[in-house]
Design goal:
InterPro entries: PLATZ (IPR006734). Residues 208-254 are annotated as: Disordered. By secondary structure, this protein is an alpha+beta fold. It is built from five helices and nine strands; from the N terminus they run H-H-E-E-E-E-E-H-E-E-H-E-H-E. It has a six-stranded antiparallel sheet with strand order 4-5-7-6-9-8. The chain has a three-stranded antiparallel sheet with strand order 2-1-3.
């Protein structure tokens, strides 16, 4: 009887250990509320509370409440950490300098738009199949070396799928970096709605005011006029950014 009782106790303990291990694995791959909210929220829709007022698009994400708010909602979130979301080619982006204070953005391809490096929050739909030696690990979008992901969600989803511990890429939120006073609600929250840019045409594009020499000068002039009609901004340079080097190490989120 003693022997059978010991075996039963051992089996119970082993079962508890397996359950605890399973719970730890689930917890490691569970997105924190702010990250789940940022990836899943809808931005630039009209605020239901302030829809009758001008500039009521929801372009700010409250990291504490985990929801999107409009500029008129900000006084109610004055003491909360706030992240400004911008829009480029009808898709939501966040400045790399802001996002990398929250999460490791290495190997996520940034884009330099109007002098600011930004990262897409979610993957963008693709209308045609592509062949390339370097594509996004999650959605197969063509990327520049040495990047592996086209958006924040692609990196996070890949790590979750692999069963990796998300806490290794998350940083503690320093609320002093995301204060109400630091918000710039001055209309620079959209990097141009360029409807003519399709698929990966925005990956590398240089639009210059300088005219070419020789026989191509007239063709260039016609192209410039056409781009102006399509809401392109002359002199704007769109290029792939590089991963920030020498960034200070931050303690993992816990």
């Amino acid at each position: 009887n003693f022997s059978s009782g010991s075996c039963l106790t051992k089996m119970v303990r082993e079962g508890q250990d397996e359950e605890e291990e399973m719970m730890m694995m689930v917890a490691a791959t569970t997105k924190p509320a702010w990250l789940e909210g940022l990836i899943g929220e809808t931005f630039f829709s009209s605020c239901g509370i302030h829809e009758s007022r001008r500039k009521s698009e929801k372009n700010v994400f409250c990291l504490l409440c985990c929801l999107s708010v409009c500029p008129h909602c900000l006084p109610s979130h004055r003491s909360h950490p706030l992240l400004q979301v911008r829009r480029y080619v009808y898709h939501d982006v966040v400045r790399l300098s802001d996002l990398e204070k929250l999460i490791d953005c290495s190997y996520v391809q940034p884009y330099t738009i109007n002098g600011a490096k930004v990262i897409f929050i979610n993957q963008r739909p693709q209308s045609r199949a592509k062949v390339s030696s370097n594509v996004c690990f999650t959605c197969d979008r063509i990327l520049q070396e040495p990047f592996h992901f086209c958006s924040l969600s692609c990196k996070v989803d890949y790590l979750v799928y692999q069963g990796d511990d998300l806490s290794s890429i998350l940083y503690r939120i320093d609320e002093s970096d995301f204060t109400f006073a630091s918000m710039r609600m001055d209309g620079h929250d959209q990097f141009g709605e360029i409807s003519t840019m399709e698929d990966d045409a925005d990956d590398i594009m240089v639009i210059s005011d300088q005219s070419e020499q020789g026989n191509n000068s007239n063709k260039k002039e016609k192209k410039k006029k056409k781009k102006k009609e399509s809401n392109y901004f002359p002199g704007m340079v769109l290029s792939l950014g590089s991963r920030r080097k020498g960034a200070p190490h931050r303690a993992p989120f816990s």
